[in-house]
Amino acid sequence: xxxxxxxxxxxxxxxxxxxxxxxxxxxxxxxxxxxxxxxxxxxxxxxxxxxxxxxxxxxxxxxxxxxxxxxxxxxxxxxxxxxxxxxxxxxxxxxxxxxxxxxxxxxxxxxxxxxxxxxxxxxxxxxxxxxxxxxxxxxxxxxxxxxxxxxxxxxxxxxxxxxxxxxxxxxxxxxxxxxxxxxxxxxxxxxxxxxxxxxxxxxxxxxxxxxxxxxxxxxxxxxxxxxxxxxxxxxxxxxxxxxxxxxxxxxxxxxxxxxxxxxxxxxxxxxxxxxxxxxxxxxxxxxxxxxxxxxxxxxxxxxxxxxxxxxxxxxxxxxxxxxxxxxxxxxxxxxxxxxxxxxxxxxxxxxxxxxxxxxxxxxxxxxxxxxxxx
Length: 374
Description:
The protein has 374 residues and is of the alpha+beta class.
C-alpha cells in the first residue's frame, strides 16, 4: 500500500490503542518504516519514547504470560517431549516465560545429555542439530591434551559467559587435528572474512575444566604456568605454546627460536622450565635469553594508545636449537604439531648438518641432497 493511502484513523488506532510499534505497522501496510514516521509527524501523533516502549513491552510480556495455561506447558514438556523453544513458538510467547512456568510448577528442566538422548530417539527428519564432543578431554593428562592446552594458552580465549571457548589460527590443518582430538562434530569458521580460521566450542563442562587448568577470560597479561601439569607432559605443552606464539627463523648459518608472551609470570616460569629440561640452556646462557619489549605510546589516526609490555624468550645457538627441536618433536606424530613450523625447523637443521659435512656444496644442491637424505 502506498503511504498516501493510509488513513489517519487507522494509524492512530494501531499506534495509540493497539500499541503496535512502527516496524509492525510498516509490515502491516507493506511500506517503509520511514514512511510511517513521516505520517506520524504529519498527523501530529506523538511518538513514544524509549522508556514508554520498555514499559509497553513488559506489559505485553506479563499479559502473554498470564494467558498461558500452565497445564498445557507441562503437558507439552513432559508428555510430548517438546523443548522450551518449541513450546514458546507454539504458544506464541517468549522462552523465559516457559522457564518461569516450569520453575513455578517445580519441574526440573532437562540437561544437555538428556536433550541429546531425546533428539537421538526421534526420527531423523525431526532431529535438531547438536554438536558432540569428548566432555572429559581436559580431565586427564595426555600428550594430546597437553598440546591442545598449550595452543589454547597462547592462541585461544575463554568467553566471559563461561560456556564457550575459541581457538584462532591461520593453519586450518591444525584446527582440524584439534577438532578430531576433541571429537567435535562442528565446523570451522572465518571471523570477519580474515585469513585466520576459528574453532568455537560451546560446552560448560569443558570451560570449567579449562578454568581449573588456569585459562581465564582476558588472560593475555595474567596467565600463569599450569602448576598441576606433570613433568612428563611439559614438552607437549611447550610444543602447543610454540605452535601458537612461537616461531623459528632460519638464516644461512643458524636457526633462531623465539616465543612472545604478554604475561611476565608465564614467561619466567617457561624460561625456568626450559633450563630444567634442556642442557644447552644452562651451558650457553649468553645465547639463550629472555628480554622485555617496553610499552610504547603510538599515534593511530589521531588516537593515542598504550601497548602493553611483551616478554621474548629466544635462543640463537645451533646446539640449543638442535636440542630444542628434538625435544619438541621426538616421537610425536605430524598431526599433533604445526606442520609448517616443524618442517622449517627440521629441514633447516638437516641442511646445516649437510652443509657442515660438504661446505663447498651450493644451497640448491644441498637442499636436493637433503630431500634424498630425509
